[in-house]
Amino acid sequence: MLVENMTLKQMLEYQPNKEDLAIMPLQARLLIKLTIIGEDKEKNYGFLRSFFQQDMKNSIFYASAKTIFYDFDATEISNSHKFITIAELYSELEDKDFIASLAKLLEGSEKESDVYFEIYSLQDSHYQVSIINGEVSGKVVDE
């Protein structure tokens, strides 16, 4: 699980282990690490507002109102000014249903920041859905 005393590097490299997945909320089937990389905090939170306003209709996330967002000014690790927002989310949906719903939501979302959804299932599957340079894509990382 993400915790507030982790460094940016630790959060970016974080992948849940079996113990992390075992302590998810009982209703959750998926753990999702969300990483947003934008020019500034306003652009990142603009994406979040746009995205979660759309998600309110079908709510593919479990208890998203309790989500903690971790913000980092990443100027020192990149050649240009970057602001990174990272969060951990959960879903009650099965992985294929979640990915299909997520892709549909992302098509209608603001695309000024690069966004990565790392999706981990209880069955040890790992997927990535992203928006990079305004293009939505997805891939199986490990199944």
Structural class: alpha+beta
The CATH architecture designation is 2-Layer Sandwich
- Supply Rg: 14 Å
CATH fold category name: Alpha-Beta Plaits
Q: Distance between the terminal alpha carbons, to the nearest Å? A: 21 Å
Share of helix, binned = 25-40%
Largest sheet: number of strands, sense, barrel closure: 6 strands, antiparallel
Q: Could you tell me the number of beta strands?
A: 6
Regarding CATH, which class?
Alpha Beta
Helix and strand arrangement:
Blueprint: H1 8-13, H2 18-22, E1 30-38, H3 41-55, E2 69-73, E3 83-91, H4 95-107, E4 114-121, E5 126-132, E6 135-142
Antiparallel strand pairs: 1-3, 1-4, 2-3, 4-5, 5-6
Describe this structure in words.
With 143 residues, this protein is α+β, with helices and mostly antiparallel strands. The chain has a single domain (20-142), classed as Alpha-Beta Plaits, CATH 3.30.70. The protein is 27% helix and 32% strand. It has helices at 8-13, 18-22, 41-55, 95-107; strands spanning 30-38, 69-73, 83-91, 114-121, 126-132, 135-142. The chain has a six-stranded antiparallel sheet with strand order 2-3-1-4-5-6. The longest helix has 15 residues, at 41-55. The chain is globular and about 40 Å long. The two termini are 21 Å apart.
